[in-house]
Design brief:
Blueprint: H1 2-24, H2 34-41, H3 45-48, H4 50-65, H5 75-95, H6 99-112, H7 115-126, H8 132-160, H9 164-184, H10 202-212, H11 214-241, H12 250-255, H13 261-265, H14 267-273, H15 280-301, H16 307-331, H17 339-389, H18 420-428, H19 436-448, H20 456-460
Helix pairs in contact: 1-7, 1-8, 1-9, 4-6, 5-6, 5-9, 7-8, 7-17, 8-14, 8-16, 10-11, 10-17, 11-16, 11-17, 15-16, 15-17
Length: about 450
């Protein structure tokens, strides 16, 4: 039974990772082809760039107004419905010759392209606490790969064919993702079926979470600053590489984004070996140190040696993966019945950091070049470390280090525990109506293993 559960869980995680990769790509295809769009629609480059802005604004709207519904609605039909709606709405983007229509539909597609942010809380529901970080790493890796591959693939296709082809590609991939999830994604009941639904109170509930949960606020602020580092670097990098002494072509600059692919793909491995074994805050601090050192190296030598930006890209990706996975792993222990709202609060603040990093990085680069924008990244990293250090990993309040300084997690069982199948299925709502057979199988597995299927509390004792 445990082997079967592990196999099904692995297939589900891979399917969710692929879904996250190819759905989040919707947001980034346009960034590499804005100049081609300007020619096709006969508009200025500045006006064409509003497509990218509108799509990101739509995504932010979806985070705030669609993602929290994952705590109310059954998630299988909700996720499949969003993907099908987005894929259908995508067809006019492939065909329309009207720029206002293209821009408006881009906003709507951005709003409904939030399925990856519904997948992450779902993994938080299903993954055993001892493996939550490595399970989340699979989905986070899919997200990061989606960002990199979308820009690279769009740039390559646009160099040799019509830019519309990347949108036709996106359309086909979305329907493929729909088909795969339709086959592999189990049906999870609503986590809050008896909740009196009030749509207009949701934003206030999300704001209240940030105001009442110290761990969530700490993680969200760290995510804000990390996102600022990331977007400031990638936004200003194209200016650096297209200017003397480098003067690289657009294709070379686009391929530069593939530097961190190995780091991203290996995330589940180092998450299992390191992040799962340490308290999340320690892993986040490790990641921020690596990230900040990378910015220092890149800022110091990037103006005259391309090795600087290369090292910076690798260390930002590695440190960023550590920080993101650790912080997400920690917040999914907050209010399990409200994980989608917790994730929304985290992501809205993180997204604000992306916008801040882009705006501040561009402004500083215009004033003082690569060194000024790099100094901004160093400052962001320093502030993030301070936020991590003012509140310890076991502190219940807003500031302090009560509860000990031990780096290793204390909730890990000394031996591999087989208990988590029943517990995680119960939390996800699979044990209950229609889940009696699964529960009997788990109990049978427990008996055959000599009673090794236990609860978290028993493991800790």
């Amino acid at each position: 039974m445990n082997i079967l559960f592990g196999f099904v869980s692995g297939v589900l995680h891979v399917s969710q990772s692929n879904a996250s990769c190819f759905t989040v790509s919707n947001l980034y295809y346009n960034q590499a082809v804005l100049n081609k769009m300007a020619e096709t629609f006969d508009v200025t480059f500045e006006k064409a760039s509003s497509v990218a802005t509108l799509m990101q604004a739509g995504y932010c709207s979806g985070l705030l107004f669609i993602c929290p519904l994952g705590d109310i609605f059954p998630r299988r039909p909700f996720i499949l419905g969003l993907i099908a709606f987005t894929a259908t709405l995508w067809i006019p983007l492939c065909l329309t010759t009207s720029f206002p229509s293209f821009a408006a539909i881009s906003f709507l597609c951005g709003a409904t392209t939030v399925t990856p942010q519904l997948m992450l809380p779902l993994v938080g529901d299903l993954a055993p606490p001892a493996r939550r970080a490595s399970s989340l790493a699979v989905i986070v890796s899919g997200l990061s790969l989606g960002v990199l591959l979308a820009r690279t693939l769009a740039g390559v296709l646009a160099s040799f064919t019509s830019w519309r082809n990347i949108y036709w590609f996106g359309l086909g991939v979305q329907w493929l993702v729909f088909g795969l999830l339709y086959i592999w994604m189990p049906d999870y009941p609503s986590k809050n079926p008896d909740t009196k639904f009030n749509y207009f109170k949701m934003p206030w509930q999300i704001a209240r979470l940030l105001a009442t949960e110290p761990l969530l606020l700490q993680a969200a602020l760290v995510a804000f600053l990390h996102s600022g580092i990331f977007t400031s670097y990638w936004t200003t990098l194209s200016f650096l590489l297209s200017s003397p002494p480098y003067e690289y072509s657009s294709m070379v600059i686009g391929l530069f984004g593939l530097i961190g692919v190995v780091v991203i793909v290996c995330a589940p491995i180092y998450s299992r070996l390191i992040i799962d074994r340490l308290v999340p805050l320690v892993s986040a601090i490790m990641g921020l140190v690596v990230e900040t050192v990378g910015v220092v190296v890149g800022t110091s030598v990037g103006s005259f040696n391309v090795a600087g930006p290369v090292v910076q890209a690798i260390m930002i990706d590695l440190g960023g993966q550590f920080t993101q996975i650790a912080m997400r792993s920690s917040i999914y222990g907050i209010q399990p019945l409200a994980r989608n709202r917790v994730n929304t609060a985290y992501m809205v603040v993180s997204f604000a950091g992306q916008l801040t990093g882009t705006a501040v990085g561009n402004r500083l680069y215009a004033q003082g070049g690569w060194v000024y924008s790099g100094a901004c990244g160093i400052a962001f990293g320093g502030f993030a470390l301070i936020i991590c250090l003012v509140r310890g990993p076991r502190e219940k309040g807003w500031v302090g280090w009560s509860g000990g300084w031990t780096c290793r997690r204390e909730d890990l069982a000394p031996k591999k525990s087989e208990m988590t199948t029943e517990q995680t299925l119960e939390e996800a709502g699979a044990v209950g109506e229609g889940g009696e057979d699964v529960q009997r199988d788990v109990q049978s597995a427990s008996a055959s293993n000599g009673g090794n299927v236990t609860s978290d509390g028993e493991n800790q004792q």
